[in-house]
Amino acid sequence: MKTLIDKIIISTRPLNEDDSIKDYLLEKGATVLDFPMIKIFPVTLTDEIRNIFQHVSDYQWIVFTSKNGVKYFFEFLNELEINFDVLSSIKIAVVGKKTAVEVVKYYRQPDLISAGNNSADLAYELAEVLKSTDKVLLALAELANNKLEERITNLCIVNRFNVYLTEDEDLVSADIIERIKNDEYHIIIFTSPSGFRHFSKIMIEKNITAKIRAACIGTTTEDEMLKNNCKPLLVSSRSEGESFARQLEHYLIKNNSI
Hints:
Blueprint: E1 8-11, H1 20-27, E2 31-34, E3 38-42, H2 47-54, E4 61-64, H3 67-79, E5 91-95, H4 97-106, E6 112-114, H5 119-127, E7 135-141, H6 147-152, E8 157-168, H7 174-181, E9 187-190, H8 193-205, E10 214-217, H9 219-227, E11 234-236, H10 241-254
Parallel strand pairs: 1-2, 1-9, 4-5, 4-7, 5-6, 7-8, 9-10, 10-11
Antiparallel strand pairs: 3-8
Helix pairs in contact: 1-10, 3-4, 8-9
């Protein structure tokens, strides 16, 4: 059923060939306008990183908190011509079903899929199963917070490896900026603090001071928005994209006057 056929939604997510949020909203009839605020790319393959991969079998756990972390980790294994069999004795822990699916796509089912929604939740679940002699490799984004490593660093041996980076998107749509300025949209979605920071910077540069209608995923993104005097209309506690899209659909239907 086309429940969102008259809705215009602006997405600040990075352009991605696999965007479950956009796909769901389009299926429901919404007009989704891409207004990416950040771009994502792997870190440079340094000698230090090569050394991590050459000794990856020394770890008892590898932890991923995002699909991008999984993607670039396994791409590095391929680039270095390291057989995935070196991971056979290593347990894999992830946040969210989508991250788990990404691991399965490259390798196998993770050993621990967090029942929670973020890295802090996963940290508490890991704390229940880690041994003091375990070596844990965290494959994270450079901008990921430290909650996970802070929670488990006194329980075992932890090595954080930033597998990918984010940068502000250089090219932004003048048409969408004008649309925001003229209030010709229903809601803007944010899925990361860095995405909102760049958006806020652009709004200041364009002298757009009106309050925006926004929705976001997670309290970390919400905190960044509140810090900049922007209160989101909807905050999803779920990290999975389709779950967020469903919540957004229900919100827009309920608040039809928006």
